[in-house]
């Protein structure tokens, strides 16, 4: 019986030791843990990731919620804020075209889409024309209300979009709120940039693209624009009023009413035997009620007598035609034009008053229809310009100062600096504007013929360019000009950009 307690004690000892034995056995079979360094994300990587989430979320928010429908006068419009590298304001007036205003510099652009004309409100204006007197104030109030509304909704959309995308990507409320806060800070910074760079006078220099026949009505009158600075709301209202007229219930485009205090000059150059140019010039004369057409040469390509018949449509353009010879125009061409009615050929510094302005000009001293470069060509151009400058000085001394000088090449034009307020030229087939050291403005026109057959030499056709110059009838000084650019061969685009002289 003495062995029983001894066996029990042995079993009890083994049971007591079994956890330690199992632990040793488990540790023996389990591999020892190893220490490893886990690479943490770089702060710049996290910052770039957050920035990507914020920008993408803000953009998605603007796309989903950022549209605001605003009634502006008799029209229904949609205002939208869109990301943009250049900023500004774009007014889409379908189907007539679009107006672009350089209103601010910020990564946000305001899009205003004219959706439709409300027939009830439009008919009310037709039935009660006395309401037109208060239309500008009504439009200004509607635009202000719509702008505030789109700004508030866009702010909510940007913050909500960034927060929602942050929550979906990070799945942490704190990171999502950080994304929303960052989006709000960026939006406030954009707002500050808009406020700091806001240019209310941008409406005075709109860029129009669309139907050429609608350009005069949409862009407006030069005299009204020049004399009405610092009236942004009224100008915007006038712009919308013009659009309202375009959407008249009678479906007729309004006639352009030229300001009687302005002289409108159409500047063309380098037609190069393009027969389409005459129809374009005739259309511009009719649309803008042009008083004088000035042509700074290279109307022909080879200057041969066989080409003279190309010039016959000039007699039916509806305005006096002032012309100087280019390096592709021969003396044969010049004599043919001198015999035409309503054509005024200027050469050797000859001056003539036409349509209320005094013009003087000289023909190009070179005749290079094969585009060759003669020895001493630069010197001959400068000499021709110097002779014109002497003639301009003589006119000034005689009490009959010249308002506009005309040459073909820019190198000759530079020689008349200080003798005339404005000198016009062409030759280089692209538009340019420059104030010379002594104060003369040099205006260079592009090719109104789209470079003629040379348009086929390049991958893209050259545009057809011309300008409408507005002169004050009393001072005979340049007030503004519209640069007109039409798509080249086979294209149908049109752009009209208003420019004002500095100061």
UniProtKB/TrEMBL annotation:
PANTHER family for the chain: PHOSPHODIESTERASE YAEI, TRANSMEMBRANE PROTEIN WITH METALLOPHOSPHOESTERASE DOMAIN-RELATED
Protein name: Metallophosphoesterase
Transmembrane segments: 47-66, 150-170, 177-198
Gene3D superfamilies, per database record: 3.60.21.10
Alphabetic keyword roster: Hydrolase, Membrane, Metal-binding, Transmembrane, Transmembrane helix
Domain of life according to the entry: Bacteria
SUPFAM superfamilies (UniProt xref): Metallo-dependent phosphatases
Residue span(s) of domain Calcineurin-like phosphoesterase: 263-430
Source organism: Streptomyces longisporus
């Amino acid at each position: 019986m003495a062995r029983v307690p001894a066996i029990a004690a042995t079993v009890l000892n083994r049971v007591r030791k079994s956890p330690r034995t199992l632990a040793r056995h488990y540790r023996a079979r389990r591999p020892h843990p190893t220490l490893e360094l886990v690479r943490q994300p770089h702060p710049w990587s996290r910052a770039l990731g957050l920035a990507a989430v914020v920008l993408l979320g803000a953009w998605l928010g603007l796309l989903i919620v950022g549209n605001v429908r605003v009634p502006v006068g008799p029209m229904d419009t949609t205002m939208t804020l869109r990301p943009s590298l250049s900023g500004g304001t774009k007014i889409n007036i379908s189907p007539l075209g679009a107006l672009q205003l350089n209103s601010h510099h910020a990564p946000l652009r305001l899009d205003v889409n004219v959706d439709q004309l409300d027939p009830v409100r439009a008919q009310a204006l037709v039935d009660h024309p006395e309401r037109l007197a208060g239309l500008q104030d009504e439009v200004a109030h509607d635009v202000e209300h719509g702008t505030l509304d789109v700004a508030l909704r866009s702010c909510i959309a940007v913050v909500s979009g960034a927060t929602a995308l942050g929550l979906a990507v990070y799945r942490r409320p704190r990171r999502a709120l950080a994304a929303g806060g960052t989006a709000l800070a960026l939006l406030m910074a954009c707002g500050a940039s808009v406020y700091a760079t806001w240019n209310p006078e941008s409406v005075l220099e709109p860029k129009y693209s669309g139907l050429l026949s609608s350009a005069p009505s949409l862009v407006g009158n030069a005299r009204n624009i020049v004399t009405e600075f610092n009236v942004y709301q009224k100008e915007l209202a006038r712009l919308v009023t013009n659009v309202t007229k375009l959407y008249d219930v009678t479906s007729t485009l309004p006639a352009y009413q030229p300001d009687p205090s302005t002289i409108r000059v159409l500047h063309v150059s380098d037609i190069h035997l393009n027969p389409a140019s005459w129809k374009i010039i005739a259309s511009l004369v009719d649309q803008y009620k042009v008083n004088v057409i000035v042509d700074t040469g290279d109307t022909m390509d080879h200057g041969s007598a066989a080409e003279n018949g190309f010039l016959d449509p000039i007699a039916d353009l509806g305005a006096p035609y002032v012309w100087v010879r280019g390096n592709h125009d021969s003396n044969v061409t010049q004599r043919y034009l001198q015999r035409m009615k309503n054509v005024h050929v200027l050469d050797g510094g000859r001056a003539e008053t036409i349509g209320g302005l005094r013009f003087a000009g000289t023909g190009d001293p070179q005749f290079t229809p094969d585009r060759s470069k003669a020895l001493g060509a630069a010197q001959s151009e400068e000499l021709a310009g110097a002779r014109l400058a002497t003639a301009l000085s003589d006119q000034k001394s005689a009490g009959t100062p010249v308002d506009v000088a005309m040459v073909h090449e820019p190198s000759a034009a530079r020689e008349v600096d200080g003798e005339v307020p404005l000198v016009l030229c062409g030759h280089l087939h692209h538009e340019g504007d420059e104030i010379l050291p002594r104060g003369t403005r040099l205006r260079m026109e592009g090719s109104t013929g789209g470079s003629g057959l040379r348009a086929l030499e390049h991958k893209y056709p050259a545009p057809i360019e011309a300008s409408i110059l507005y002169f004050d009838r009393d001072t005979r000084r340049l007030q503004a000009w519209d640069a007109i650019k039409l798509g080249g061969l086979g294209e149908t685009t049109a752009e009209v950009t208003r420019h004002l002289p500095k100061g």
